[in-house]
Request: fold
Amino acid sequence: MNATPELLPSRDFEEHLTRKPVAELRFDATVPRSLVHRAAIAEVFVTDSARVGDPAPESDEHTFEVAAQLPRGHVVGERGGGYDFLLLVEVLRQSGVLIAHQYLEVPLDRAFIFSALNLNILGLEALRIGSSPAQAVLSTTVRPQRNPAGRVLGFEFTGTFWLDGVPAIVGSGSLTFVSNRAFQMLRAGNRKKLDGRSPRHPQLLRSAPSLVGRRDAFNIVLTEPSVSESGTASALLVVDTDHPHLFDHKLDHVPGNLQLEAARQLSVAAVAKLHGLPAESLVVTASKAEFTDFAELDLVTRVAAEVGEATFDGALGAVTVPVAITVSQEGATVATLAIEVTQWI
Reply:
């Protein structure tokens, strides 16, 4: 396992910035929940969007701006001082889904599969919760992949989150769209690895919130982490399909945001113990995730981590620690992630 994973190369936003937002976007109402694949209206954060300029014919690149309001109080935020990592991931996900439906003619009945999702924080102070909900604008460039008939099969994207006019985060990723029939065939093929078994996920005890940097036991997604002095850590995934954010609607697999949260919690637990830091003071300042296979709800999911060396990041003005993570089921890897952890007081 690579203990010093390659994250985005710099926090100099000029290198990654798509463009400063120029569209007049609204923040007074959310978009229809069907356009972002959410069941609960309260879980919709995107409020508006616009295409910026015309696509370049030679490259088929498109630039969009997507507006969202970040709630100061949310079940995954736990009344913390800064906007939660999971909330930022969800806004990025909703933005990609909206762009596909609203502008790229992807039908509403398509299943969306994220194969990669990356975030890099440019500055922590931009994420601090103020006296009013933050107005977020994602300025993003999208590069679609099309079939011979011109239909969009998926796209890669890069972009920058501006929070209240400040460039705060750079993000990138890729996703694929498949019909419901194709998705069911894909899932049926994946389920064959169960060899006809109908296993049930065991009832697991959640970790104490203080060990993984959480306050509310409802948001704990791991068993108590085991952390060794050599810098390795492991835990089992706790799947709660009643969680209103992680399972906003019924799913037949472990979603990527749950795997990201598990990676965050294990990274925080390991870094806190190895470096003698309060877990609640540690935040994610970069993440890089590749989802290589579906994770089944009814199989035991193991999360393993290896902690790298602490270094001082001049752009953040803080010490950061990289953590390399694998998510596996029955010995087979389903996701690899890199998390950078930073103390923020």
